[in-house]
Design brief:
single chain; FAD/NAD(P)-binding domain; 2 domains; 5-stranded parallel β-sheet; globular
Length: 495
Amino acid sequence: MTKDHFDVLVVGAGISGIGAAYHLQKNCPGMSYAILEGRADIGGTWDLFRYPGIRSDSDMHTLGFSFKPWNAEKAIADGPSILAYLRETVAENDIGRHIKFNHLASNASWSSETATWTVTGHRSDTDEEVLHTCNFLFMCSGYYSYKQGFSPEFPGADDFTGQIIHPQHWSDDLDYAGKKVVVIGSGATAMTIVPAMADDVESITMLQRSPTYVVARPEKDLWANRLRKYLPNKLAYKLTRFKNIKRTGLIYRKTRTEPDKIKKLLLGGVRQALGPDYDVQKHFTPSYNPWDQRLCLIPDGDLFRAIRAGKAGVVTDTIDTFTETGIRTRSGEHLEADVIITATGLNMVTLGEMGFVVDGVAVDFGSTWTYKGLGYSDVPNLVSSFGYINASWTLRADLTCEYVCRLLNHMNKTGTDQCTPRLRPEDAHMAQRPWIDDFSSGYMQRTMHLMPKQGDKEPWLNTQNYQADRKLLGKGPVEDGVMTFTSTRVPASAG
């Protein structure tokens, strides 16, 4: 069994991991690094999901990297285009040679004596155990389980004679042409699949237990496309990114301060799109305020067009049971189906479903405190990348990468090899808050107890606020009295 050592190990070769590689090469050029990727290709989410219509639900001028302009005409991009963008990034920066594919990390053990992490994993292409050591571990494995999507136990599911499939496990040979399809769910995945399949099926129905806020937005950013005609690509991208960050932040703040006003605007847009006879109150009016859960983006109103054209329908009801030929709802309606798609969400996990041990003691991340939304109290030399729930993932991933490089360079400059966030005496009685606060989505609530606690003061915050994070991560001092720096190095003898 080989044992390779690196200054930094990155786990995951999706958006976060590729961004980490770029920043390490640019800002820490003297440090060695490798990326452990459990799958056979890059891309993470954009390689895993293959369902019809797979696309971004954030604009690519903010979901794209800060350092690489998104130059395509469509700002709301399809999955293959996003994957192509990631491949370009890898090729342009010679990142591929640092990626170890089919290396699924399973456990990480820290030794304060040697100031190293030992990462154990399995290599699927050779069926052997692999071992790597590093001084710093950067987790970029995302927030959901790649093993299985979330799917409730549905009564009568074994009686259904058609096909049942979860979007996370889409089969390329699924034949749905000319068939009756029911999509269970009301999130971004369901609202992507329904219009994407509508032209090819006999009928398609989105069956939702409760509505979600929906907003239509142009697939193309005309302002961005116009700017590129007159300005250099990098400048046009920077200006568009700035505009979109400001707009998204403003809208989110308004949902917190004037929720009724934003609700009225959102529902007004739906009524305008679907007409006065459509029951917007029943099918598109949630019981919660905007951004208490994530908004669903409808590019160019494609879902609305499918509904208006009679190609798609929405049923708001709970499931009584599956039958041989479809689904019977609690109200007694029977939805005929040949194919049932369970777009019921993800299983959220902590740090890539890996086990962590620090000096022989297993880490329970649910008992730790989050440090700036990226570190964990009393866990040394470890940072994880987690994006925003109210803005593009990559905005925070970029800031996290910049902070990691600042941290590594500080340790190199000061001759230290361990950095550990530790509570100060004045932090001992902090009020405890959930790691993600003020967000009621089921996939979060099901696993919030597994996540670190959030405090009520810096740096024990997970702000979910880009402007606040720019100060906290980008400009705040690395030595802040909480991040503790030590060294295992023995000084040279004076004699």
